[in-house]
Amino acid sequence: MGAGKTTVARELGLPAVDSDDLVEASSGKPIPEIFGEEGEVAFRALEEQAIVLALGGGAVTSAGVRDALGDTLTVWLDVDVDTCWERVRDSGRPLAQDEAEFRRLFEERRRLYAEVADVVARDVHDVVLAVAGVHVERGAVKRLGELVPGDGAVALVSDPQVAGIHGMDAQLALGTRLAETHELPPGEEAKTLAAADRLWQELRLDRSGTIVALGGGCTTDAAGFVAATYLRGVEWTPVPTSLVAQVDAAIGGKTAIDLPQGKNLVGAFHWPARTVVDPALLETLPEQQRLEGMAEVVKAGLLAGESFWELPDDELVRRSIAFKAAICLRDPDERGERTLLNLGHTFAHALEAAAGYEGLTHGRAVALGLLAALRLSGRDTGVVEEVLRPEPARVDRERAWEAMKRDKKARGGVPRLVLLGADGPEAGVELPEAEIRRELDRLIA
Ligand SMILES: NC(=O)c1ccc[n+]([C@@H]2O[C@H](COP(=O)([O-])OP(=O)(O)OC[C@H]3O[C@@H](n4cnc5c(N)ncnc54)[C@H](O)[C@@H]3O)[C@@H](O)[C@H]2O)c1
Questions:
Q1: Is residue 420 one of the residues assigned to a domain?
Q2: What is the pLDDT of residues 339-397, one digit of tens each?
Q3: In terms of domains, do 149 and 272 share one?
Q4: What is the tally of structural domains in the chain?
């Protein structure tokens, strides 16, 4: 501080990029405010975050620039030449005056782009996936050996059903890197202290190893938590196989196990080294499980204002993930925007609690919760009814209302909701108690 860095830049006649300015621009807050409200640790985390450097199209023709890119994640936005020309033809840019010359440059530079790029992206969603470390590719499971980062030993963790269907493909693809295989119990049983304890004790990896979690959200949550804690944390790569896990559980770095007192009460934020998503794995998923995941796809689409649910599988998965990943990158610790992902979930959690977590699946509860959120937002509920076909829950009304008032985000016993406003989604919306209760009652048989 005060050493004269800005003066040096001025002396050299070079523009100075001050990281304080970048932090202020990305957080939208002055630095004293960040220190005052969130503390120094939060400020340092912002400081560490990547910046996006938009390199001029010809920058990589210089060997010095290519070298300087070094370890920086370099993404090639590979847009076709016709689209690029349409976008710049009237821009007055010096190298976009003549179409033939523009096309020649484009072809000439492609080779260099391919050389420097770590990732080739078609659009902004691909770039978000690259920055979040999510690789989406049909057939990716057959290339796991290359796609799991690093070259250390791998411990493959799965559940019995998924291991039976897809385990052999994963094992073959991991080849000589595969050092151990483990099975977690099916379903929520995987997310118990006993299951985590068994896995901790069975693992033989050292700190250079990677845990690969092949399975639904229960497997990725539990194996991710074990990865966060084993040897004070080892790398992990989820390979989500259910729709819930592909679009939700394996995205965003949250891992957890359950306690008898409630779900996900012990966990850690532990961002994977890479997440490998193979939409082809969904072909063996039972229809009921698919519907569970569609509840999250519909939720993401409603928040994004786009009909993700109408897209073919590969695109539906890619867009839903990119939507969630972008929010999680902007708010990794759930201090702000990430709470929007709770659309419909306050009602859902209350219904699940009232059902004693039996007989009402999370996806069905979310579908009902979305109905209530849409009604309270004054929106049409058609999409939820058509795509998710929710049926009223058979639970006790009083129990559901009591659970809703105990929600983490409730203030003075009145739940605060995520709703869709005229200018987009809004969190922390307070409504009269009677109105919320009326909508909760409508969800119950
Ligand atoms: N960490 C997070 O941010 C987050 C977000 C959402 C949900 N979750 C957690 O995810 C869990 C639910 O995930 P889930 O619904 O995937 O449950 P799950 O892991 O139990 O999988 C559901 C069922 O589908 C089977 N299955 C999975 N993939 C298959 C495939 N390709 N072919 C055939 N069968 C397949 C599984 O064996 C299992 O029987 C919950 O514990 C929830 O708390 C976590």
A1: yes
A2: 999 999 999 999 999 999 888 999 999 999 999 999 999 999 999 999 999 999 999 99
A3: yes
A4: 3
Pairing of strands 154-158, 178-183: parallel
Residues 172 and 278 in one domain: yes
Q: Which amino acid is at 416?
A: R
CB 191 within 8 A of CB 221: yes
> Parallel, antiparallel, or unpaired for β 210-215 and 235-240?
parallel
Three-class SS state of 45: helix
Q: Is 182 a catalytic site residue?
A: no
| 324 catalytic residue (yes or no) | yes
C-beta 235 within 6 A of ligand 1: no
Within a 10 A sphere around the Cβ of 442, how many other Cβ atoms?
12
Q: Any catalytic annotation for residue 270?
A: no
User: Residue 293 CA: which ligand 1 atom is closest?
Assistant: 15
Determine, yes or no, domain membership for 110.
yes
Encode pLDDT of 401-429 as tens digits.
999 988 877 778 788 999 999 999 999 99
Question: What residue's CA is closest to ligand 1, atom 10?
Answer: 217
- From the CA of 188, how far away is ligand 1's center (Å)? 9
Q: Please count the other Cβ atoms lying within 10 Å of the Cβ belonging to residue 444.
A: 17
Give the dihedral sign, CA 318/210/328/240: positive
Instruction: Report how far residue 445's alpha carbon sits from residue 144's, in angstroms, rounded to the nearest whole number.
Output: 46
Task: Tell whether ligand 1 has an atom less than 6 A from the beta carbon of residue 251.
Answer: no
Which parts of 45-148 are beta strand (E)?
75-77, 119-121, 134-136
Within this chain, do residues 175 and 247 fall inside the same structural domain, yes or no? yes
pLDDT (0 to 100) of residue 214: 98
Say if ligand 1 is within 6 A of residue 352 CB.
no
Residue of 166, 299, 318, 324 marked active site: 324
Measured distance CA(190)–CA(220) in Å, rounded = 9
Q: Whose CA is nearest to atom 1 of ligand 1?
A: 249
CB 162 less than 6 A from any atom of ligand 1: yes
Give Cα separations from 321 to 140, 175, 288, 396 (angstroms): 16, 28, 21, 35
Contact 101, 108 (CB under 8 A): no
Judge contact between 420 and 378, C-beta under 8 A. no
CB 300 less than 6 A from any atom of ligand 1:
no
Parallel, antiparallel or unpaired: strands 254-259 and 235-240: unpaired
Q: Which has more confidence, 279 or 47?
A: 279
Same structural domain for residues 268 and 406?
no
Probe residue for ligand 1, chosen from 214, 241, 289 as the CB with the greatest number of ligand atoms within 8 Å: 289
- Torsional sign, CA 436, 345, 309, 160: negative
- Containing 256, the helix (H) or strand (E) segment is strand 254-259
